[in-house]
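ok trying again, last paste got cut off:
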Amino acid sequence: MTTALPQKKKRADEPSGRTLVSPSQLRTRGGRALYAIVFVGTFVAFTIAFLFPLYWAVTGAMKTPAELAATPATLVPHDWHPESFAAAWAQLNLGKYFLNTVIVAGGAWLVQLAVDVPAAFALSKLRPKFGNLVLGLMLVTLMLPAAALLVPTYVTVTDLPLLHLNLIDSPAAIWLPAAANAFNIYLLKRFFDQIPDELVEAARLDGAGPIRTLWRIILPISRPILAVVSILTIVAAWKDFIWPLLVFPDTGKQTLSVMLQRVATDLPLNLLVAGMVLASVPMIALFLVFQRQIFAGLTAGSIKG
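nice, full thing came through this time. structure:
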């Protein structure tokens, strides 16, 4: 007969797993000082690495063209010229191209949600026959380089099958090819998989069909992942360059990224940088406003229960 050995009682302040610095070291003055130095140093280094490009762009826009092109570069402008932003806005007619980009990004967002959400719901909860095969084939498309899809996609939008429509110079040329996004469908399906099937079954017993179940049950509790998919879709459409360059030969219908590249050779360097800064402001503001929802959505499907 064996007797169980008494287990050592765990202290309340003892960590549950191994750590880089032991609790005994943290209780010493030298250990706390070393921990604070390493933590602050790492935090400052990463902050500088992420914020310095933004600082460089903003201050570069407020330099003169000669100072901006000078070698060695200056960290702080000798003379501040904040009027460069107003000059860039007026000279480049940025309001018009902002509107073009908003139409393209907003339409891509609506079309992708209209296609990807029902597709993910069907694969997750309705479980159609060969659903896993369909999902696998969609994920295979993520392995293809984007450049390999340019020619067949361009041929398709110049002569839309069945309808025989030419979508060149139309926002639909961007909306339709981006509608079925395999990565977004996978993210949504993974989140929907965490929703208990009992909720869907209860809705079915109450007489709700698939569309009503999706609208009344699934979507209200899926706001975090919808926010993530929305941000990814809008940012991708906002910064895309190659595809809008191909489908918008009319300069008046181009997006910001295409227009800025087109005028880059004929524009003073500081005004070009100012235009780039102004073009990036909406995406930065969008992230700052919805960062909590983004982080919640990225981690929501990682733990089941």
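cool. The chain has two domains: 24-84, 86-300. The mean pLDDT is 86.
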